[in-house]
Structure formats: structure tokens, C-alpha cells
């Protein structure tokens, strides 16, 4: 299977959201990556449950909900999560991580743990049976348009090897942050499966979203 595309909807032009969604449907993207920020876990605010509900009315593309919030366990119930979605919580944001992962599992969504660039892979040791996906942040989360943290390329490779060694190679690797075409190609070689596409690749001012998405796919197949 080739790499899958998860466009970061916070990078879209909200004045033309419907047009954006139709272009992404035409380009057969796999998910819509929805960043939720709380101004505490990260120094920024973004989308919320009302936004998700509105976009749900426009499309059947599964959502890839990235909760960049502290204590995600308190807020999971207010999101309209569906089976087939991905829900990511940060390892650094919840004290009882295993319990929070079970909460996600109960919704029928795919369970994902996000790691900031400085969070080591060994923190996954005791939750491998509870997750479907690891989301490797390749920038420090909070803002679009940042530069890749170079060490994260090696981290993707290390994670891929580690998952094979511990007999959990079915766990997929998602990458988020400065996933340009060139970086995506390196990330694919390192073992990434799902690619968050933002301002570095498909959302570029005055350029065609559909065409950029088709071009991006060539780098991850
Ligand atoms: O998670 C994010 C910010 O924290 C965004 O989804 C992502 O960074 C957007 O992509 P790009 O880096 O290409 O603008």
C-alpha cells in the first residue's frame, strides 16, 4: 500500500472551505487532519467540535483528529468521533495515558499517540498493545509553516525498526510538520505511512490544491 495523505485543514482558506473539500475529495485523500489547540498544551488556538460538526455535513472523508490539548480525556466526549476516524492524543498531555487510549478505542476510532520531537520512543514501551498509530511530530506543534526538526527523520527510522523488533510492525507511523514533497520522500523511506500535508506541500497561495495533492502523492508511493 502506498503512503496515505491527510491534509491539514487548518492550512485551508476558510473563505472557500466547500471548494477545498471538493478538491480534496477529487484528489482521493485518505483523511482530513483536524488540529485542535487549546492555548495551553501549545501556544495557539485552532479548531473545535463545532468546526468538526460543520465539516462532517460536507463530506464523508474520515477525520484524523489531532488533539493538541492538555487532559484530552476530559474533552473526548464533546467530539463527534466516528468509527474509521483517527484520534491522536499526546503522550505528554495526559497522566493516565493507557486509560485515555481505551476511551478512544471505545469510540471505534483508530487509536494514535503523538510524540513531540523531544519525547523518546521508549515511552511507547508499555502501551504498544493499545495503539494503532504513532504520530511523530516533525516540528514542535502549534503552528503551520515551521522548519523540520532534523533529528526527527532518524526518529522515524528508529521507530520503524523498534516496532519490527518488538513484534508490533502492524502499528502505522504518521508524520506531521513541514512534510514537503522532498521531506515526505525521505520520511517514506524511513518508514512513514500517513503524511499530514500542510503549507509545505499542498496548501500554497494561488496554486491549485488538486494538482499539488496529485503531485504530492508521487513522492509517497
Ligand atoms: O500540526 C500542525 C501544526 O502544529 C500542522 O498540521 C502542520 O504543521 C501543517 O503543515 P506545515 O508544517 O506543512 O505547514
Automatic annotation (TrEMBL):
Alphabetically ordered keywords of this record: Carbohydrate metabolism, Cobalt, Isomerase, Manganese, Metal-binding, Zinc
Ligand binding (a divalent metal cation): 33, 35, 66, 176
GO BP, one annotated term: pentose-phosphate shunt
Manner of cofactor binding, per the entry note: Binds 1 divalent metal cation per subunit.
Entry's Gene Ontology molecular function annotations: D-ribulose-phosphate 3-epimerase activity; metal ion binding
Catalytic reaction(s) noted: D-ribulose 5-phosphate = D-xylulose 5-phosphate
Lineage of the organism: Bacteria, Bacillati, Bacillota, Bacilli, Bacillales
Name the record gives this protein: Ribulose-phosphate 3-epimerase
Signal peptide range: none
PROSITE patterns: RIBUL_P_3_EPIMER_1
Gene name tied to this protein: rpe_2
Record-stated family: Belongs to the ribulose-phosphate 3-epimerase family.
Record GO cellular component, one term: cytoplasm
Superkingdom of origin organism: Bacteria
Enzyme class: isomerase
Amino acid at each position: 500500500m502506498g503512503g496515505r495523505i491527510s491534509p491539514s485543514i487548518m492550512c485551508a482558506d476558510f473563505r472557500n472551505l466547500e471548494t477545498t473539500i471538493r478538491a480534496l475529495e477529487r484528489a482521493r485523500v485518505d483523511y482530513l487532519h483536524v488540529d485542535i489547540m487549546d492555548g495551553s498544551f501549545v501556544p495557539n488556538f485552532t479548531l473545535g467540535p463545532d468546526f468538526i460538526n460543520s465539516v462532517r455535513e460536507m463530506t464523508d472523508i474520515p477525520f484524523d483528529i489531532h488533539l493538541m490539548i492538555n487532559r484530552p480525556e476530559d474533552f473526548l466526549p464533546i467530539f463527534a468521533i466516528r468509527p474509521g476516524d483517527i484520534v491522536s492524543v499526546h503522550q505528554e498531555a495526559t497522566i493516565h495515558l493507557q486509560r485515555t487510549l481505551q476511551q478512544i478505542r471505545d469510540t471505534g476510532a483508530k487509536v494514535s499517540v503523538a510524540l513531540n520531537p523531544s519525547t523518546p520512543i521508549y515511552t511507547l514501551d508499555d502501551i504498544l498493545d493499545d495503539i494503532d498509530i504513532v504520530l511523530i511530530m516533525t516540528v514542535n506543534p502549534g503552528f503551520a509553516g515551521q522548519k523540520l526538526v532534523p533529528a526527527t527523520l532518524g526518529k522515524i527510522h528508529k521507530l520503524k525498526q523498534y516496532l519490527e523488533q518488538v513484534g508490533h510492525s502492524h502499528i502505522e507511523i504518521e508524520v506531521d510538520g513541514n512534510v514537503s514533497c522532498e521531506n515526505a520522500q525521505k520520511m517514506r523511506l524511513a518508514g512513514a505511512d500517513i503524511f499530514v500535508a500542510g503549507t509545505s506541500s499542498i496548501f500554497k497561495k494561488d496554486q491549485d490544491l488538486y494538482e499539488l495533492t496529485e503531485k504530492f502523492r508521487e513522492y509517497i508511493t
